[in-house]
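Bug report (template v2)

What were you trying to do?
Predict the complex of my protein with guanosine-5'-diphosphate.

What happened?
Run completed; filing so the output is reviewed.

Input:
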Amino acid sequence: HEGGKRLGLSWCRDLVSFRETHISEESLLPLTASIKHKLTQKNVTSDIADLLVTEVAQKLVGKKVSTFQSLASIVYRSLEESIIRILSSAKKIDLLTEVGSARKSRRPFVIAFVGVNGVGKSTSLSKVVHWLSQQNFSVMVAACDTFRAGAVEQLRTHCQRLDCALFERGYERDPSVIAQQAIQQATRQGIDVVMIDTAGRMQDNEPLMRALAKLLSVNLPDLTLFVGEALVGNDGVSQILQFEHRLQALMQTEKKCVIDGIFLSKFDTIDNKVGTALSLVYASSIPIMFVGTGQMYKDVRTFQAENIATVLLADS
Ligand code: GDP
């Protein structure tokens, strides 16, 4: 404008004011409605979709923008920020650093895998064994699913393929004692990580939930990972909340959360419907640590919030 005046270009001021506008609630409405539709199509629960668009509207209404900027791109950028903020808000865990410092203290780092039946628990556990082995950590698997026939044999097959130590005492034994003995043996042998496989159970199966609460209370794993399927949508959210709630009640722990992290399995089967990831983290405040992307051991990724945001906001 100053430059324009100096050059005698008085029309410059009008041009500048013409090129700036304030975002109004009305101007956002068509965009937020279509975004909400897109998010729910991709499995974001409708209350979280509502919350996201409301947050974006609150951030943007009244903001001065140049008319050269497309309102859609402003809204999308703001939405992307909100999605990444939610996905990154849960406390991050730097697993490799934590395993490394346990090794320095000459004790095994203990990871317990928990979850309901058939979600891919033993496959996901095996993927983490593979991932840790690739980082040069030695791993022992403790076969603590003493409930389901065939569980120990299944784990033995995984361990043979992965060339990893297996600690098993068959069936009909107290899984918390097996885990304890495995940790003792791993300590004696200088093994870096003990992975405890537990029986899959529904959160309302009282005897099995009690057994799991005992296993966790006795062995105090460094990390308790809940394996949940990416394809279950809202059911997955209530599953993890009820699981956590039941464990809290049974363990009477001081810990804010018994479950430390989520392994989201079968991510390769959901196409662009990645909304469960957002709903899970938002509802539980538990971070997603790993994502399972296939049936092979190598099919595991550490979780990247940015990737989820990109898929959620993509047109298809
Ligand atoms: P568990 O009963 O919870 O221990 O489940 P399993 O580990 O036996 O897995 C059940 C099925 O899910 C098997 O056929 C696995 O190959 C499959 N599975 C596990 N994780 C994934 C994944 O990330 N992607 C796909 N496509 N299949 C998976």
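What did the reviewer find?
The longest strand covers residues 223-229. The chain has a mean pLDDT of 90.
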